[in-house]
Amino acid sequence: MAASCSDSRVAMKRNRTLSAFERVAALCLSVAWLGGGAFARHFALIHSRWGIGAAALAALLYGVAWLRVAARSRLLTWAELFAPWRRLRA
Question: CA–CA distance from 7 to each of 4, 11, 14, 25, 44 (Å)?
């Protein structure tokens, strides 16, 4: 009996380091999200728009996450993304 594509599991390496191009791309994404979030935060504070302020906070946090990807030179796991202060056991 042949296994279907959904039956086979592909293990991904999470500890693979990013290439220089991927690090530059992560850094550019970080700068874009941080810049957009800062602009949206400024706009929200001046015009008292709470919805834009919440979106600005989310954009700033997403920018920080991409900055961590560029700094660590690898993709983050979900645990590292939501609890960056916690050390994971290898």
Answer: 5, 13, 21, 33, 48
Residue 70, amino acid: A
CA distance 72 to 33: 18
Burial class (CB in 10 A: 0-12, 13-18, 19+), 33: buried
Whether the Cβ atoms of residue 60 and residue 40 lie closer than 8 Å to each other: no
> Cα separation of 25 and 75, whole Å?
12
Retrieve residue 72's tokens: 């660590």
Q: What is the DSSP letter of 34?
A: H
3-state secondary structure of 32: helix
User: What are the extents of the domains in the chain?
Assistant: 20-82
Rounded to two decimals, what is the model's pTM? 0.74
Higher pLDDT, 42 or 82: 42
